[in-house]
Amino acid sequence: MAKSFFNKYLSVSDEVKSALTDNKPVVALESTIISHGMPYPRNLETALLVENTVRDNGAVPATIAIINGVIKVGLNKSDIEYLSAEKNILKASRADIPVIVSQKLSAATTVAATMICAKLAELKIFATGGTGGVHRNAVQTFDISADLTELARTNIAVVSAGVKSILDIGLTLEYLETFGVPVIGYGTDEFPAFYARESGYKVNYRLDSPEEIASAINAKWELGLNGGLIIANPIPKEFSMDKKTIDSAIENALKLADEKEIKGKDVTPFLLSEIKSITRGSSLESNIKLVLNNAKLAAEIARYL
């Protein structure tokens, strides 16, 4: 890629650059969880913990965001502090990137945008909490996350605790199958449901080691089968929430969102905030633990990539 592109649009930190030059493992991390997923100061604490978890497991973290119109791959601490405290940070998906960059605005990156930016920097693997998907009322609203179409087209492996349990998991998995996105369960035959380990739906394949997963990722792209993969990593048992409890909280939060006519990009942060309130904070603690668990697995896989 031309040097002018990097100078104009993309800034890769010295730490990430050095790791890529030396063929060391790098894990991409999103920033929406910092600006829109958690309250301050837990968002700041979690972002730094996630980066430390990646380092502790032998890889280099590359948290991604758009700061003043520049796509930054590998944020420094002051960038993370800015994203965690600033109230007017935008939320960028694929459709938002051109305007945010050209207008020199600042935005946290969703799963879709993080995949795009990670690919620009030639990264291979990305850890998040949960991916987006088909919303429960999509038959009426046609609300389907851009994360799914990005998984169909962009060569990045995504480690997640499944899709967010506020979504229609069955329809999401059908969508992924239609677009040829492999869904691999790490040590599980059942697709995890974010806060809970069980969803009632099966994964395409179960693989039990980071090395096996890395081998499948490499085989996919070496065969020219473009697009991403989902590595479904269940929340650790000790932090998993009771499925009936979380399902009830989700139903109540969805009803409230309908009553308040919350739509579009505002839906997910609203629902997560309401679920946190309904569960008296326990959902936030589970969210943090599953993100750390995904960062650990992504670093372990990255070592074999």
CATH class: Alpha Beta
Reported by name, the CATH topology is Indigoidine synthase fold
The domain tally reads 1
Unreliable parts: none
Instruction: Tell me the major beta sheet.
Output: 11 strands, mixed
The total strand number stands at: 11
Name the CATH homologous superfamily.
Indigoidine synthase domain
Pattern of helices and strands:
HEHEHHEEHEHEHEHHEHEEHEHHH
Helix content: 40-55%
**CA distance, first residue to last residue:** 22 Å
Structural class: alpha/beta
Tell me which CATH architecture applies here: 3-Layer(aba) Sandwich
Mean pLDDT score, rounded? Answer: 93
Shape assignment: globular
Fraction in beta strands: 5-15%
Number of helices: 14
Cα radius of gyration in angstroms: 18 Å
Structural overview:
The structure is a single chain. The protein is α/β, with parallel strands linked by helices and 305 residues long. It is 48% helix and 14% strand. It has 14 helices and 11 strands. Helix 6 (97-102) links the parallel strand 5 (90-92) and strand 6. Helix 4 packs antiparallel against helix 5 (77-85).
Write the layout of secondary structure elements.
Blueprint: H1 3-8, E1 10-12, H2 14-21, E2 26-29, H3 32-37, H4 42-56, E3 60-67, E4 70-73, H5 77-85, E5 90-92, H6 97-102, E6 107-109, H7 111-120, E7 125-127, H8 138-141, H9 146-153, E8 157-160, H10 169-178, E9 183-186, E10 205-207, H11 210-222, E11 229-232, H12 243-259, H13 267-278, H14 282-304
Helix pairs in contact: 4-5, 4-14, 7-9, 11-14, 12-13
Compose a concise summary of this entry.
The chain has 305 residues and is an alpha/beta fold. Helices cover 48% and strands 14% of the residues. The protein has one domain (3-304): Indigoidine synthase fold (3-Layer(aba) Sandwich).
